[in-house]
Amino acid sequence: MKNRKTCLGPSTGKGDHPAPPPARWRRWLSSANECHQSLRAAPVLRFRANLTGGIQAFRLLAVCAPLLLVSGCSSSTAWGWYVIDPRTESGWTNVKFLFSGMGSTILISLIAAALSITIGLIVALPGLSDRWHFRIINRVYVEFIRSIPLLPMLFWVFYGLPIIFRSMGLDIPIDPFWGAIITLAVSDSAFTAEIYRAGIQSVARGQSEAAQTIGLNYAQTMRYVVLPQAIRRILPPLANQFIYIVKMSAFASVIGMQELTRHANELVVTEYRPLEIYSLLILEYLILVLLISAGVRWLERRMGSDERI
Amino acid sequence: MDTGAAIEMIGVNKWFGDFHVLKDVSMSVNPGERVVICGPSGSGKSTVVRCVCRLETHQKGVIRVDGTELTDDPGSVAAIRSEVGMVFQQFNLFPHLTVLQNLMLGPTKARGLSRLEAEERARMYLERVKIPEQAGKRPAQLSGGQQQRVAIARSLCMEPKVMLFDEPTSALDPEMIAEVLDAMVELAEEGMTMVVVTHEMGFAREVADQMVFMDAGEIVETGSPAEFFETPKSHRCQTFLNQILRH
Ligand SMILES: Nc1ncnc2c1ncn2[C@@H]1O[C@H](COP(=O)(O)OP(=O)(O)O)[C@@H](O)[C@H]1O
Ligand SMILES: [Mg+2]
Q1: A130: DSSP letter
Q2: Complex ipTM, two decimals?
Q3: B47 lines ligand 1 (CB under 6 A)
Q4: pLDDT tens digits for A1-28?
Q5: How remote is the CA of residue A79 from the centroid of ligand 1, in Å?
Q6: Would you put residue B54 in left (φ > 0), alpha (ψ -120 to 50) or beta?
Q7: pTM for this structure?
């Protein structure tokens, strides 16, 4: 524990037993790697520091949302919070209807993300090759896919692709669910491919050379040596992409997918209360994204608690 | 034509783009022989050993390892890799694995040994390089000298016929050089075939059977350590030896 003092920085000079560090310090502490290695207690500090961010955001939500709701319900004509006032029967029905889209939004996003990180890796690998004709494949895919706006691609997949299938004599119907997933996955995979490429390139060349000289083949070198080291660089931006997918899944409402945005749209048409309903819709996405962020931080922590690289 | 040499290079040429890095390099290393390569920085020493373990490809000439010619054929590359161990200047240990895992990775994944066999072998070689107690640590927790000895043990775990060393002590603090050289001397005494790029002339005098001096991509001079140090023939070699032996 000798190191503790030096880690905490200059003493206040008010005696030998400094007061426990204030919360703000903890966060600062947690980012100092040297402290990590010498302090056994460090992982705990880091854990708390990371958690406080999420907890504070949730607290803010918990305070603000009811405030808005209550002030809205009790006052004026401009706000019509009654449409989603859970205390009334119709309001509760509406709220339940709005939230019932959450399941398919999550499902679409999860499947699309899983496909995207798979396709992304497959596309990234030829981009790392020494041979130019492999790299060309990677470049063409990435440049082409990332230049297509999501909505046109969604239309193309949902309305166009079945025609291609039919002309080939294949009977593969594309429902809104899979149409949305394919579009989101392919569109996102161009970005995940770039994330993988950058992450893998950040691992020193000597690592894969050493792996080769002890007889590992290409796949083994990737699997056991390169990817485990690249994953720290890859995970945070991949998490960003997942959040992007969740938000972009709203476009699936356009082709009739029953998800969060679609439900909000349908309710607005019958209730004529766009302000309140879309406010709640935004809140729903906010909750989803905050949950994802918390999950990612948990994952990073779990990988990071294991000795630093 | 198999001459029985462990390594045979005949008229090897290599270019990096327009840059002619190896010019007609020929040499032969017999089984059990120790060859030390020296020469000024940028003369192509690393490139020679990297060609032998196929981390670089040569464009002209022939390289044979234990009778197998190095070609683009993946089978020949795999065959050579299983015969040749390589120790790098920068150690290149895998930082996310423990010392023991570093040593077991090759034998379990590339050789198909069981974990038990691989661990037994790994511990044996750690014992050989005199750091059995570090098995559970991460490379970053070891000193440079210890890391390099782990790297040597990692190569030995693949039980190669030839060991290549590319300036194994150049990245080390002076007080750690001896422990790595000791491990290498021991290896030489056990009869390992070794090609060592180094400027440690004390080590060269002690273990080398053959000295090779390179400059500007060419082998300028070869000979026994006695001739090489006492009566260097070429001017370039004399100048080089004067420079490094003066310190
Ligand atoms: N991958 C590479 N691409 C281009 N030039 C290189 C590459 N590797 C080495 N070289 C050049 O080849 C020459 C020989 O390099 P090297 O074999 O590392 O020399 P040494 O090990 O004797 O110092 C140097 O001039 C170096 O700059
Ligand atoms: Mg070199």
Answers
A1: S
A2: 0.93
A3: yes
A4: 344 433 333 444 444 444 444 444 444 4
A5: 73
A6: left
A7: 0.77
